[in-house]
Write a structure and sequence with these properties.
- The chain is 54% helix and 11% strand.
- The protein is α/β, with parallel strands linked by helices and 292 residues long.
- It folds into three domains: 172 residues, P-loop containing nucleotide triphosphate hydrolases (Rossmann fold, 3-Layer(aba) Sandwich); 40 residues, no CATH class; 30 residues.
- It has a five-stranded parallel beta sheet, sandwiched between helices.
- The N and C termini lie far apart (93 Å).
- It binds BIS(adenosine)-5'-pentaphosphate (AP5).
- The site of BIS(adenosine)-5'-pentaphosphate (AP5) has 34 residues, from helix 1, helix 2, helix 3, helix 6 and strand 6.
Length: 292
């Protein structure tokens, strides 16, 4: 399956993409992770991306597109992939369409994660990543515990680090950039008929279940979706066989309103008939009475 996960910073794309990749045996491709790795290694790409990432801006489209083109050409992406954090704007989305058309591998689904802003900020402020194995934790919602407390790379406790761009100023800018540049992708994919929207708040397992449902085409339990379903059900509900007094009143008034123009037409026709039946006045007489 070829999937895109869309959502604001901290909405849980990485967390869910990681789980989905494990359960489906397809790679998680995170442009954020690829860029951070390039920055850490000090590659030319990393050096170019660093300033934008530190400020919360988007990295240049050409750099990101080159990186994605290369990654999608890897053999493990042939069976499918989960794009996490890409595309980020309309230019990237159009380029992805073109690239996947070239490969003959169109997207199957785009899932939009919905999380309230204050919860996004809470999650980001608690996020910590193990410097050795890269596993993501949250000191507020999911600290390392039990078997997960030991780093599989070192066999010791995880060395938890905070991401450089997880500070108050940069987070505010990332949220602004998301609203301005990434949010419009919702409409882009809705028009293509492949968008699913899920409520990404609540326990990680519950979100994973909603994501799985969305990917199998089951209706997602979002508040917005629930409202849409409720109003659709209301429209489709059959009218009661025994109308209430109020309904009878409304129906009678509306019938009367509809009947008004018809009654007017009858009056006009009757008047015409009367005029036709009346003895005709002589035109000359009529003229005689005309003032000059
Ligand atoms: P990137 O790394 O993609 O960051 P992001 O999109 O801002 O997303 P995050 O990684 O912050 O959040 P997430 O949704 O993955 O949440 P997570 O699962 O970690 O990009 C970083 C930068 O790189 C960008 O600012 C930009 O400069 C550049 N960049 C990247 N891609 C680019 C592109 N395509 N074009 C241009 N530039 C690009 O969860 C967050 C925390 O919450 C974690 O601690 C987690 O444990 C916790 N959590 C997750 N789910 C739950 C839950 N259900 N309940 C409670 N806590 C939860």
């Amino acid at each position: 399956m070829r999937i895109v996960l869309l959502g604001a910073p901290g909405s849980g794309k990485g967390t869910q993409a990681h789980r989905l990749a494990e359960s489906r045996g397809i790679p998680q491709i995170s442009t954020g992770d690829l860029l951070r790795a390039a920055v850490t290694r000090g590659t030319p790409l990393g050096l170019q991306a660093k300033a934008a990432m530190e400020s919360g801006a988007l990295v240049d489209d050409a750099l990101v597109l080159g990186m994605i083109r290369e990654r999608l050409a890897d053999p493990d992406a042939r069976a499918g992939f989960i794009l996490d954090g890409f595309p980020r704007n309309l230019v990237q989305a159009a380029a992805l369409d073109g690239l996947l058309a070239e490969l003959g591998q169109p997207l199957d689904a785009v899932v939009q994660f919905e999380v309230a802003n204050d919860e996004l900020v809470r999650r980001i402020s608690g996020r910590r990543t193990c410097a050795d194995c890269g596993r993501v934790f949250n000191v507020l919602t999911s600290p390392p515990s039990g078997a997960a407390a030991v780093c599989p790379r070192t066999g010791a406790a995880h060395r938890l680090m905070q991401r450089a761009d997880d500070n108050e100023v940069t987070v505010a800018e990332r949220l602004r950039v998301y609203a301005q540049k990434t949010r419009p992708l919702t409409e882009f994919y809705r028009k293509r008929g492949i968008l699913r929207v899920i409520n990404a708040e609540g326990p990680v397992d519950a979100v994973a279940q909603r994501l799985a449902d969305a990917l199998t085409g089951a209706p997602a339990a979002t508040p917005a979706a629930a409202r849409v379903r409720k109003s659709a059900a209301k429209r489709a509900r059959p009218k009661s066989a025994a109308p209430t007094k109020a309904r009878r009143g409304r129906a009678a008034r509306s019938t009367a309103r509809r009947a008004k123009p018809a009654r007017k037409a009858v009056r006009v026709r009757t008047a015409r008939k009367k005029r036709a039946a009346a003895p005709r006045r002589r035109k000359s007489g009529a003229r005689r009475g005309t003032r000059r």
